[in-house]
Amino acid sequence: MTEGSSSERPASAPAQAHDATIAYPGGLRARWRWAGSGQGRAVFALSEAGGSLEDLGPLVSPAFEELCRAELRMDGPGGSWTIRLASTIYDEPTGLLWDDAGLFVVRYGFTTYALESRSGAVRWTHRSASPLIAVLGSPRLPHVVVQSEIETFALEPDGTVGWRIAHSDVVAEAALVGGRLVLTSFGGQATALDPVTGRVAPGP
Fold first, then answer.
1. pLDDT tens digits for range 123-182
2. Among 1, 58, 80, 150, which has the minimal tally of Cβ within 10 Å of its Cβ?
């Protein structure tokens, strides 16, 4: 599994669209564009022609055009596809290629999207109660680990929740380090979990 890079969210939405191009294994190239509330026109101004196009904004809100918007264009050996997303908060979208499941998993706002990596078709979505900060995966895991500000949960290939853990403090960072899921709270406290089971990992 390969995840795109991410950066800290700014305190307020910028007035212009941002973009990033990231290469993934298997000859896949993703082009991301995103912006703040009401900036959909700026995000979509440079949309590339060709391939399928689907707007998933209605999955978030009937008023999706007024929200923060993002666009993902994927080019690969199987063709090209584009999806458009919406979020109630400003966020920089990131994606993770889940090779074994044939999925490209996207984190944006409160929602995780599992898309078929060759076609962009939506396999499933999952909405969190708090903003998402990371989607993590490894070839050694049977699921992806999704981290929000107040909970951690494992999502199986069919979208079901394998396990879920709530946290008493807000999580600021999450990373897979040495076979452990290391969470750092806003207060600076670090917690290590077993990413397979979600249980607290034993000490060294």
1. 999 999 999 999 999 999 999 999 999 999 999 999 999 999 999 999 999 999 999 999
2. 58
On whether the CB atoms of residues 195 and 181 are closer than 8 A, the answer is: yes
Two structure tokens written together for 67: 């929200």
Beta-strand ranges (E) seen in the chain are: 2-3, 18-24, 28-37, 52-55, 68-76, 79-87, 94-98, 103-108, 111-116, 122-127, 132-136, 144-148, 151-155, 161-166, 171-177, 180-185, 190-193
What kind and span of H or E run contains 40?
helix 40-44
Per-residue pLDDT tens for 3-22?
Answer: 554 444 444 444 589 999 99
Specify the 3-state DSSP secondary structure of 112. strand
Are the beta carbons of 19 and 93 closer than 8 angstroms? no
What is the distance of C-alpha 193 from the center of its chain?
20
